[in-house]
């Protein structure tokens, strides 16, 4: 009886962790859209702590996110230093509200020719809708343009959870979750659509974000609110991994390579199933994957799932190696040594692999890392830091051989160096 009770409690905790702590589906408050009661107005709003982080080509570390006044700000710390942040610089977003929660946070990307890009979701009045917007700098971040909308489609629907990356040829890829196909899908009984989930769309810019090619569908039936992982493979091609809705309603992950410039109207590239937890759930877990290129080919990946084997359920964050086409090497799949691990990410440099995550009991959050020096064959766990109250997810970043984790709470943005 005790064993049965413990097992059920663990499963319930895992589900509460996904649905309760994952707030990616929430929209930030928007000026001019009131309706809050007097009682609720006294409740302090949850801070939006989601940030984007990146190393500049000169080794300086930058982050971008919202300040206490919901202004988009950027800070940097010089190359070789840690936690010596410059004065926050407010960026002109032309009055946009900005989504800055964990899974849908601003993104920061350095590119060729002194290009710096900042992407974010601008929520629209209708719940769970938005546009992907971008600021662009051509002088290394000294000045930025006003934001422009990345995609051609401008309906008041979901264009959210964007990811951005350059391939080896210098083409910029923007990938996002899109619901235009859901909107036109045939309806079944009780106004339920026959279309499962949402879709993954993308476009390509060949001039560093000055202009964008047509919106192109990558895949139908993605999950609705999970981040999209991008990683450049050994061949220089950018690859995407996302939570997918496999028939009939299995929320595992899919993988595909992104062509540099797909022709309009072309058939989406075939997708490969990358995980096999067989988790059937009627809703989005708000918990996307992580992806990093592996030395010698293929990729390292991490993801959250609940493995269902008959009546048994095993929740947890898992690590595995993927082959070059995105298919899994089943012999490498293993669960992280932390029942409370959430929103893990992975980075890699040669044989060094770092998996980082947040472990939370609802009150105290601990930043942890799983470190490997043999390409992911063996790992050592390390505790990096701990905070009480609200905090962002772990944001790993690397430049050359330097690896670090950036972790934000309402008081500070802290950098933890990874030496192993």
SSE map:
Layout (H helix, E strand, L loop, with lengths): L1 H20 L16 H4 L10 E4 L5 E6 L5 E6 L11 E2 L16 E4 L5 E8 L6 E8 L10 E2 L9 E8 L5 E7 L1 H5 L13 E8 L10 E7 L6 E4 L5 E6 L9 E6 L13 E2 L16 E4 L5 E11 L2 E11 L11 E2 L5 E9 L2 E9 L3 E9 L7 E9 L6 E5 L2 E7 L4 E5 L3
Antiparallel strand pairs: 1-2, 2-3, 3-4, 5-6, 6-7, 7-8, 9-10, 10-11, 11-12, 13-14, 14-15, 15-16, 17-18, 18-19, 19-20, 21-22, 22-23, 23-24, 25-26, 26-27
* Count of strand segments: 27
Low-pLDDT segments, ≥5 res: 1-41
**H and E order:** HHEEEEEEEEEEHEEEEEEEEEEEEEEEEE
What is the C-alpha radius of gyration, as a whole number of Å?
A: 20 Å
Q: Give me the side-by-side strand order of the main sheet.
A: 1-2-3-4
| Helix-strand makeup class | mainly beta
- Number of helical regions: 3
Largest sheet: 4 strands, antiparallel
Helix content: under 10%
Which overall shape is indicated by the principal axes computed on the Cα atoms? globular
Percentage beta strand:
35-45%
Q: Ends: how far apart?
A: 44 Å
pLDDT averaged over residues: 89
Summarize the structure in short.
This protein has 420 residues and is mostly beta strands. It has helices at residues 2-21, 38-41, 180-184; strands at residues 52-55, 61-66, 72-77, 89-90, 107-110, 116-123, 130-137, 148-149, 159-166, 172-178, 198-205, 216-222, 229-232, 238-243, 253-258, 272-273, 290-293, 299-309, 312-322, 334-335, 341-349, 352-360, 364-372, 380-388, 395-399, 402-408, 413-417.
């Amino acid at each position: 009886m005790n064993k049965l009770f413990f097992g059920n409690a663990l499963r319930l905790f895992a589900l509460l962790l996904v649905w309760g702590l994952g707030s990616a589906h929430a929209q930030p408050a928007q000026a001019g859209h009131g309706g809050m009661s007097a009682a609720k107005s006294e409740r302090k709003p949850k801070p939006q702590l989601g940030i984007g982080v990146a190393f500049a080509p000169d080794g300086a570390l930058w982050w971008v996110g919202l300040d206490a006044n919901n202004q988009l700000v950027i800070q940097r710390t010089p190359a070789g230093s840690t936690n010596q942040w410059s004065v926050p610089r407010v960026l002109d977003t032309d009055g946009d509200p900005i989504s800055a929660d964990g899974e849908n946070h601003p993104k920061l990307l350095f590119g060729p020719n002194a290009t710096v890009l900042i992407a974010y979701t601008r929520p629209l009045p209708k719940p769970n809708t938005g546009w992907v917007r971008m600021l662009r700098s051509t002088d290394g971040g000294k000045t930025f343009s006003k934001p422009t909308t990345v995609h051609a489609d401008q309906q008041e629907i979901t264009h959210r959870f964007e990811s951005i990356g350059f391939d080896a040829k210098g083409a910029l890829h923007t990938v996002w979750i899109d619901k235009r196909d859901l909107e036109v899908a045939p309806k079944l009984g009780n106004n339920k659509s026959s279309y499962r989930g949402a879709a993954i769309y993308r476009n390509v810019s060949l001039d560093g974000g000055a202009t964008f090619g047509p919106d192109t569908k990558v895949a139908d039936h993605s999950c609705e609110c999970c981040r999209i992982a991008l990683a450049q493979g050994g061949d220089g091609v950018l690859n995407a991994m996302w939570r997918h809705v496999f028939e009939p309603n299995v929320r595992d992950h899919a993988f595909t390579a992104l062509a540099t410039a797909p022709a309009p109207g072309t058939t989406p590239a075939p997708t490969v199933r990358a995980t096999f937890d067989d988790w059937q759930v009627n809703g989005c877990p708000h918990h996307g994957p992580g992806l990093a290129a592996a030395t010698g080919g293929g990729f390292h990946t991490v993801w959250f799932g609940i493995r269902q084997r008959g009546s048994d359920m095993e929740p947890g964050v898992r690590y595995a190696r993927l082959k070059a086409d995105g298919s899994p090497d089943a012999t490498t799949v293993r669960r992280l040594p932390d029942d409370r691990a959430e929103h893990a990410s992975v980075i890699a440099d040669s044989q060094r692999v770092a998996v980082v995550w947040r472990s939370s009991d609802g009150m105290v959050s601990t930043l942890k890392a799983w470190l490997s020096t043999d390409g992911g064959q063996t790992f050592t766990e390390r505790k990096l830091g701990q905070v009480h109250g609200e905090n962002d997810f772990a944001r790993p970043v690397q430049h050359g051989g330097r690896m670090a984790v950036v972790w934000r709470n309402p008081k500070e943005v802290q950098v933890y160096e990874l030496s192993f």
